[in-house]
Design goal:
- This protein is of the alpha+beta class.
- The protein has one domain: Ribosomal Protein S5, domain 2.
- Helix content is about 35%, strand content about 15%.
- A hairpin with a 3-residue loop joins β1 and β2.
Length: about 120
């Protein structure tokens, strides 16, 4: 099961995040994030839009689609678990580094928490 549709980053937004967002790194992942822009374009009484996420994994990571898809599924599952802690309005892209194919779900969950706290998207522990 993937991310809810409202939390998926649209194709046209990837370039905006790459150009305007900031980066954080861990051993297996790179985060490009663009925080909410205050109340720009939001009318009184409305909330910020839901946070949106994208995952990028190159063919350089693995030639086999099976391996790339397994990594994406594990990342999506970890993101779903952390979703309630992430405030609204963020746009984030997770870029997978080459050694990530050997990671398990728990490792991705720890790295995502670490990256999100470095980006100040969630409170650090």
């Amino acid at each position: 099961m993937g991310l809810p549709k409202i939390n998926r980053l649209h194709r046209r937004d990837f370039q905006v995040v790459y150009q305007q967002g900031f980066s954080r790194h861990s051993s297996h992942l790179k985060l490009k994030a663009l925080p909410a822009r205050g109340n720009a374009g939001i009318e009184e009484g409305q909330q910020l839009p839901a946070s949106q996420f994208g995952i990028t994994i190159s063919r350089k990571i693995s030639k086999k689609a099976v391996a790339r898809n397994r990594v994406k599924r594990q990342l999506r599952a970890a993101l779903r678990q952390l979703l309630p802690q992430i405030p609204r309005g963020w746009k984030m892209i997770f870029v997978v580094k080459p050694r990530a194919t050997e990671c398990k779900y728990e490792h991705f969950l720890r790295e995502l928490e670490q990256l999100l706290s470095q980006a100040e998207a969630i409170d650090g522990h």
